[in-house]
Amino acid sequence: MRIVDWSDGADGGPAVVLLDQRALPHRTEYLQLTTVDAVVDAIRSLAVRGAPSLGVAGAFGVALAAHRHADDPARVRAEAERIARARPTAVPLALGAHRALARLDDGAPAVLADARAVAADAARVNAAATSRAADLLEAGCPGRPVRLLTLCNTGDLACGEGGSALGAALRLHERGALAEVLACETRPLLQGARLTVWELARAGAPHRLCVDSAGPAALATGLVDAVVVGADRIAANGDVANKIGTYMLACAAARSGVPFLVVAPEETVDPHTPAGAGIVVEERAADEVTGFGGVSTTLPGTPVFNPAFDVTPAELVSAIVTEHRVWSPADVAAARPPASRVG
Question: Exposed, middle or buried, 221 (CB in 10 Å: 0-12/13-18/19+)?
Fold first, then answer.
């Protein structure tokens, strides 16, 4: 399944190819993006989403700029910055764009080669992180299959081949060690209902769908062994920015004594952001909340608060699992003197 790819384009010239995630689960449609404007629009409109997939899209977008404007390196650099800023919260988008841009002096083919390397590296990273996370989850439930709760979408669609948090669940399924994934629908754009359920169904993995606010109830009534989520940015202290609703689940998991795991690439950890207060949280358009499917669900002109992400404090995170390590920021946070935790 191609999520983000490249086409040399016999007729229309080079293009970035995207599986349009806005059309799922009912239609499988691909976009052929032949301009940087189209790439930026696809990123902002969530035709491609998920931090690692955004990194791949960003790299291929810069490759497109390098091919389209081979005689104007200043314009390529400007286009790369525009791509990198298209969504501010996710770390991999800017990293992917800047990594590809670093090869600009070597020519457009070199930029494209590095974009392809970003995609290949994502698959290797995902394989290592999901295997480590599956081992950890399986060890926590010896002798029986694991029951998981997740939010948003963290499979191949969001992360490239192998996924992250959902990828860990699917590794358990491959081992015969998954009892069920309880997938939150993920308002307002239903990435859980549309995308996570689609990926679970394709894999034949046992699952149920629930409204976001049912997640804490599932935790409180003992239906869940662990919460697994991804991350768009992780501060140096272990505070985690992820899809809105994550903080709610982390609070409920802590109250119920259920482990809360974050599965994400090491590159998502931002050493330049000391704590979650420094993470820029994208706020999206009001119409994502005021209606659905072209039907208004509230009064016209209703003011809206629509953050795409929230920040979960490190002390609520049982473990962050990357391709390199298992990190327990809750332990680090608990060891700090109280004064150091203010703010």
Answer: exposed
